[in-house]
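Feature request disguised as a bug report, sorry. It would help if multi-protein outputs had a clear separator. Right now it looks like this:
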Amino acid sequence: MSSVRILIVDDQEPVRRGMRSLLASRTEWSVCGEAPDGRDAVAKVKELRPDVVLMDVSMPAPTTGRSWPSVGIALVYRGLFGTERD
């Protein structure tokens, strides 16, 4: 059985590192990449073709739905850390 490939998208490097650590505990999941903003995330989705994108919706460089390539599942969340935009 192949693992579910996950792309982590968050502008906070400690958050990405923590999520990677949590996801590593499951053998059926693998983190195929990370992106610090929406523009890089779109490029990584096209390049890496993940099954799941785990993304903070309150980070810099947001993208519109039309610019996203096809992805199986997108899980979005509101970041836990405050930003200048809050």
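(second protein starts here, but nothing in the output says so)
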Amino acid sequence: MNNISCPKCRWKPSANDKWQCSCGHVWNTFSTFGECPACAKKWLYTKCHTLLACGKWSPHIEWYNDLDEALSAQLEELNIQTAAHNQPIIEIHEQR
């Protein structure tokens, strides 16, 4: 999570920081790219930590400082999840 920080105040969440979905589930939103694993709600905005930092809402995607790396990791996870079907959902192409 080194490349993730609040776009407004630069607070960096750790893997132990948690967010709560409107369904009540608590998890680290950056482990799922903003999607609740319990109800599949996709959070387009993420609130910064209220006690440790600014407490403001920002678009979830703006928290990723190295978006190419974050997206590659997310695509790799999707491909791992679909490996049982012997074909990836999305091909990852290296830029040359």
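Even a blank line would do. Unrelated, but nice: Confidence is low (pLDDT under 50) at residues 88-93.
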